[in-house]
Specification:
Strand content: 15-25%
Shape: globular
Number of strands: 10
Helix content: 40-55%
Oligomer: single chain
Low-confidence stretches: 1-8
């Protein structure tokens, strides 16, 4: 049973990749404890001063010899985990009490699903915004519209199927979650528990080169295999991500150009996406 220490098979393993952030890490571990996982795997991603984790029967600390990035750290954690289900948690985020129980109950009612995400609360400079999806399906068509599902801290997925997918692409420095989501949902269906069960912190400004490289990788891997309708979905989502990147860099002409491209492919969807981002304090 989740939340009960046992010598039997582990049900849910939390995987927490971390580079630095010792104090935030301890808060993340505590939230995982309170949420009822059976095992907590902390992956120290080559921190110069090795991280410390509580001396606890449920916590295991895995150290990587060098900083390889979040994708590699998560993959290493999954490989070492013993649970049937993997629940990811970033070291600067936290779960709300009961997250694991909510997701296990969701999966029990839908035995055909390969995993489940949930709603999350985004902390942006002290302003909290709840992201609560409008339905419970997370299939390939929905994944094509972008990677805003917070899967680094909301996803619970079957370990065997995650390993079978090849895991996160370790060559990507950004959007490795979206790239994986597209590959995974082309073969398996995920669900979304419509409850806010995680608190997610807004990360640092992205490296433009890493973002653009990831978007090119996604485009090259997916577009040749999509029909026209699905291709439109992906092209619009990619343009919107490039517009967001341009806004971070203060390149207003590029913002307008990419928004125009998104609107060309999917005008109503683009307007709706902009409205939702404006409501959450982001434009685009």
């Amino acid at each position: 049973m989740p939340g009960v220490a046992s010598t039997g098979p582990v049900s849910v393993s939390a995987v927490i990749p971390c580079h630095g952030r010792q104090e935030r890490l301890l808060a993340a571990i505590e939230s995982a404890h309170q949420s009822g996982v059976d095992e907590i795997l902390v992956v120290d991603d080559g921190t110069p001063t090795p991280l410390e984790a509580p001396q606890d029967g449920r916590v295991r600390l895995l150290r990587l010899p060098e900083n390889k990035g979040a994708a590699a750290a998560r993959n290493a954690g999954v490989a070492a985990a013993r649970g049937r289900w993997i629940a990811f948690l970033d070291s600067d985020d936290r779960w709300l009490v009961g997250k694991i129980d909510v997701q296990l109950a969701f999966l029990a009612a839908r035995p055909g699903l390969a995993g489940v995400t949930c709603g999350f609360r985004l902390d942006r400079d002290g302003r909290a915004t709840d992201y609560l999806p409008d339905n419970e399906a997370l299939d390939f068509d929905r994944a094509l519209t972008g990677g805003r599902f917070g899967i680094g801290s909301t996803l619970m997925v079957r370990r065997d199927l995650f390993l079978g997918s090849g895991g996160f692409d370790e060559t990507l420095g950004r959007h490795e979650d979206w790239e994986w989501l597209l590959r995974f949902t082309s073969r398996h269906e995920l669900g979304i528990a419509r409850a806010v069960m995680a608190e997610v912190s807004l990360g640092s400004r992205p490296d433009p080169d890493a973002v653009l490289a990831a978007l090119r990788c996604i485009e090259a891997a997916q577009l040749p295999h999509l029909d026209f309708g699905r291709g439109r979905r992906l092209r619009a989502a990619l343009a919107l991500e490039r517009a967001a990147l341009a806004r971070w860099g203060g390149r207003h002409l590029d913002v307008a150009t990419e928004l125009s491209r998104a609107a060309l492919w999917r005008p109503l969807w683009t307007l709706n996406a902009l409205w939702r981002r404006a409501a959450h304090g982001e434009i685009p």
